[in-house]
Specification:
Blueprint (H helix, E strand, L loop, with lengths): L7 H7 L4 H7 L1 E5 H11 L4 E6 L1 H6 L1 H9 L4 E3 L2 H7 L8 E6 L5 H6 L4 E6 L4 H13 L4 E5 L8 H7 L8 E5 L1 H10 L3 E11 H7 L6 E5 L8 H4 L4 E4 L11 H17 L1
Parallel strand pairs: 2-3, 5-6, 5-9, 6-7, 8-9, 8-10
Antiparallel strand pairs: 1-4, 2-4
């Protein structure tokens, strides 16, 4: 059992909470039974190390069984060691080291997708992770992170996806112009979510949302500037019928993705 929170091995795992360490190693942190369970179910080959407290493994024996089936040994650690490794203040008994696995933009659009979420300079980790989760729930084919969008493997992003990170392809580090070109070449229209755009309900009634679509979602504070909006075929806004000044980005993105999902399946 690992019981020294200052050991080099423990500190190496803890460093993955920082982007520099993730970039240097090509690895990232997973925390909690939900994320670890999804990784074992969908991409077990990506798991490098798995740590757990004895109590946590007793509560979630299925994780131990899945790890054994994948040929991965569960290493026991003390609560103090787990707290040192984890990014969260109160970790839930499991920490894993996982290999990064981004998909290329070329591969995504070569598969003839019908619904793609594009995040352009989305900075908030919670928003980015929640949009990935919403895209997964809406049956989107892929997600693309462009510009200076937050690091996909930031621990807060990973947690916010609640395992959806392992369910669909995600590309990182792409340029919006290049993504737009590939999307159009693959037969997708490009819709930008923007408060100054046309009413989303009108677009639904016109049948616009039934076509294969790449939705572009911009920065939380500034949205999409004119240059980026010009790359879209049309800008659409989620209507606000009540007194709220605006809508959270992840909530608005969820509405847009589901509207497209409904239209494409109707």
């Amino acid at each position: 059992m690992l019981d020294n929170p200052r050991s080099p091995r423990v500190r190496a795992v803890a460093k993955l909470g920082r982007k520099q360490a993730r970039t240097e190693t090509g690895q990232f942190l997973l925390e909690g039974p939900q994320a670890v369970g999804e990784a074992l179910a969908w991409r077990p080959e990506l798991l490098v190390e798995l740590f757990a407290t004895p109590t946590a493994l007793e509560r979630h024996p299925g994780i131990g069984d899945a790890a054994a089936a994948a040929g991965l040994e569960v290493e026991f650690v003390t609560e103090q060691v787990l707290e040192t490794m984890a990014d969260t203040v109160t970790p839930q008994g499991f920490v894993a080291v996982c290999a990064q696995f981004p998909t290329s933009v070329r591969t995504i659009f070569a598969e003839q997708p019908r619904l793609v979420a594009v995040l352009e300079e989305v900075r908030d980790p919670g928003n980015a992770g929640t949009i990935i989760r919403a895209a997964d729930a809406a049956g989107a084919d892929a997600v693309v992170l462009t510009g200076r969008t937050v690091d996909l493997y930031n621990p807060k992003v990973v947690r916010a996806t609640t395992g959806s990170l392992f369910h669909l392809p995600v590309a990182v580090g792409a340029d919006l112009a290049a993504v737009a070109d590939r999307a159009r070449a693959a037969g997708l229209q490009i819709l930008a979510a923007d408060i100054k755009g046309d009413d989303l309900l009108t677009a639904r009634q016109e049948g616009t949302l039934a076509a294969p679509t790449a939705w572009v979602f911009g920065n939380e504070a500034h949205g999409l500037d004119d240059e980026r909006l010009a790359r879209a075929d049309r800008a659409l806004a989620v209507p606000v019928y009540g007194s709220a000044e605006s809508m959270n980005l992840a909530t608005a993105a969820s509405v847009c993705l589901y509207e497209s999902a409904f239209a494409q399946r109707s």
